[in-house]
Design a protein that fits this description.
alpha+beta
Length: about 140
């Protein structure tokens, strides 16, 4: 059984961490010059999040937002485990747990910045009483 019961929960928690990140001006200033427009397509349940780093925008839903230049494909459970610090993206790519399309090297350059969001993600889960997601 998957940890997220529906698409709305994926947007609340996985989309929420991107929204929180865009509230951090220092982080935004580091992401903007990357030129990365990242689209993550989640399954189980299906959801699509597009993060436009140059314009500091997040778009939810398939077909929303600008065209992506980097795309990732993974289960929502894998996305949750990533934000808990339990998934190392390059390893997950090598194992096929995460599939990618586009210049992934551009994404890997900004990937270390994600570590600063692990704590806020965990805190959001705790505040929401989602121990099931914390223990995934």
């Amino acid at each position: 059984m998957t940890a997220f019961s529906n698409e709305a929960e994926v947007y609340e928690f996985l989309g929420g961490i991107f929204r929180r990140g865009l509230e951090d001006q220092a982080l935004v200033e580091q992401l903007r010059p990357s030129g990365v427009v990242l689209r993550i397509t989640y399954t189980d349940p299906d959801a699509v999040i597009t993060l436009d780093m140059p314009n500091s925008e997040i778009h939810e839903g398939a077909g929303n937002g600008p065209d992506a230049n980097v795309e990732l494909f993974m289960t929502a459970d894998t996305g949750n485990r990533f934000w808990l610090g339990k998934v190392i993206l390059p390893v997950a790519l090598a194992k096929g747990e995460v599939r990618a399309k586009g210049p992934v090297a551009k994404l890997l350059k900004v990937l270390p910045l994600a570590k600063g969001m692990f704590g806020p993600y965990r805190a959001h889960l705790q505040e929401s009483g989602r121990t099931d997601l914390l223990n995934a």
